[in-house]
Amino acid sequence: MTFDRAHDEIVLTGATIYDPTRATTSTQTWLWHGGSWQQAHPSTAPNIYSLDSSIAYDAANRRVVLYADILKGYVATHEMWSWDGTNWTRVSLPRVVYYAAPRWIAPGPDGDILGLGKNGQPDQKGVLYKWTGQDWKVLDVTGTPGAVRADAYDPVHHHLVVLGSSDAEIPDLPPPSDSIFTFDGRAWSATLLPAALRGRVNPALTWYGGACTLVLWGGSQGHGNAKQSPPQNYTDTWYASE
In a 10 Å sphere around its CB, with 0-12 CB exposed, 13-18 middle and 19+ buried, how is residue 200 labelled? Predict the structure, then answer.
């Protein structure tokens, strides 16, 4: 989910069930406005393709952008969609080799859209991209997280905040590098996550203007490659502290 500054509301996308065989099912769009959630019913919407999808606010164009990463062999089948407050419109993307494009998008400190990906090498280090409006440009920045759990933009400190780890490790395992990564437009810094949040996947993270803080909700653990007994689904809420 992300905050839509143009319409002063939080936009949440997702589905009640994930089934790759039902790719014709449209993604649900929910809006938080006036103290409650309301489901939007756009005439066009992206399909439910992949768990590796992300959403961010594009300040330059005053629109919310959804990006889906769909692995098909060695070719990256990525889709980008733009939300104008009422409907989704598909954005044209270049066809590239899979590891030459990001897997996750996030709002940048300069109001642009950044992409987070991997280098395609055995070490699986992170790569940072910038969306030019037509293509992805690789930025010369070290310390980019290789695994992303969630991200949000902090408009007070003008930072991109990412929950993840420096390496693309096995899902659901809490590695020592599971951290809060902060990007100020020039460099990354990292702080270890609280123990209760390490290894958690697919939480929702967003900026809550009412309290001027980042808010994290939910997530899960034990549904991936590292089986736990029983799997955990979380509905707790965490607030960032200075």
Answer: buried
The identity of residue 237, as a single letter, is: T
Whether 74 shows a pLDDT value over 80: the answer reads no
Q: What is the CATH number of the domain that holds 231?
A: 2.115.10
pLDDT in tens, 200-217: 888 888 887 777 889 898
Question: What predicted TM-score, i.e. pTM, was given to this entire model?
Answer: 0.77
pLDDT score of 14: 78
pLDDT at position 181 over 90 = yes
Is 77 buried (19+), middle (13-18) or exposed (0-12) by CB count in 10 A?
A: middle
The torsion angles phi and psi of 29, rounded to 5 degrees, stand at: -120, 125
CB-based contacts of 195, cutoff 8 Å, min separation 6: 174
Spatial contact of 90 and 78, defined as CB atoms under 8 Å apart: no
Q: Which domain holds residue 74?
A: 2-239
Instruction: Give the contacts of 29 (CB within 8 A, at least 6 positions apart).
Output: 11, 12, 13, 39, 40, 42, 45, 83, 88
Domain count, the chain: 1
What pLDDT is recorded for position 174? 53
What whole-number distance in Å separates Cα of residue 135 and Cα of residue 194?
36
Q: What are phi and psi of 176, to 5 degrees?
A: -60, -25
CA R_g for the chain? 17
